[in-house]
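Researcher: Please predict.
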Amino acid sequence: MSSHLGKVLHLTSFGESHGKSVGGVLDGCPPDVSLTEADIQSQLNRRRPGQSSLTTDREEADMVTIVSGVEDGLTLGTPIAFYVANRDQIPGDYERFRTIPRPSHADYTYQVKYGTRSISGGGRSSARETIARVAGGAIAEKILMEQAGVEIVAWVSAVGDIQAPDMDMQHISRGEVDQNLVRCPHAETAEKMIRHIQSLKEKRDSIGGIVNCVCRQVPAGLGEPVFGKMEAILAQAMLSIPATKGFEIGSGFSGTRMQGSEHNDPFMAAEKGLRTKTNFSGGIQGGITNGEMIYFRVAFKPPATIGLAQKTVDFEGVETILEASGRHDPCVVPRAVPIVEGMAALVIADMLLLQKTREQGLS
């Protein structure tokens, strides 16, 4: 099983959704980066279940404990290990799934691949695993801010057919994003999204959505062509998040409807190096960052666990009716915002440290 991410900044995650704990080990963090549990906790609070009427009813405080790699508020340059205890597990809710693979879940595929699986909550395929991503990403953000001034902000841009207008990516802040339950910074659209999600929750159904993300002040020169291009690694990172089904960067699919004369980003002189007048490239050209903002979108499918009865078959192929109980999100995108930010931070920080290693080798 692949539970590792990164080359220089290397995250390993562990734990199952209904085990004793989930967590990770982040290796490769430079020494003397300021870091406390509070730096991580602020992002985990945005990801945790039970935070609003739009999320699962599972009650987890998700309090992080750092067990190594930090002393007196500074990193030591040694592996940083952290964990979050699981408190509100109800494994009995999943007993019926021992013989019935849930539609659009990983029950069947895990069973086929490994010959076994975690019955309780999906185990490693559960979004509970993303705690390690958010915690590791919070540490990566500290590295990025201290070494390059990088800022990363994600927000909900769509829920089902409800689409928010374009945001000012140069200035949008997490404070604006967190002003409402759905984490859409456009108030009027957010109210429509909230009502839609709440109505589907009452109907025991679910809905998908889109998370946008912008990464500002990313230095030029990051990325490892040809197979480690920045957009390729970002895509891999985002599509490894549970429930993701699509990724586009810069102009994305809309760029296919443009002519080259419209889509090209002309260069202009700047104080340091060059800038581009437009940014349809999304801050990356040839797989390498060019110093402009990186921006992308991630599509999330409707949560597979719904309360409505579904016709399906058991592992023996016998027809049955599955009616899920338990606790689940009617829409994952409000809680996915810090996960997207964390994964972006891990990728960019890894590329930054890798580039610094190369530059030091050439000096």
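Model: DSSP finds eight helices and 18 strands in the chain.
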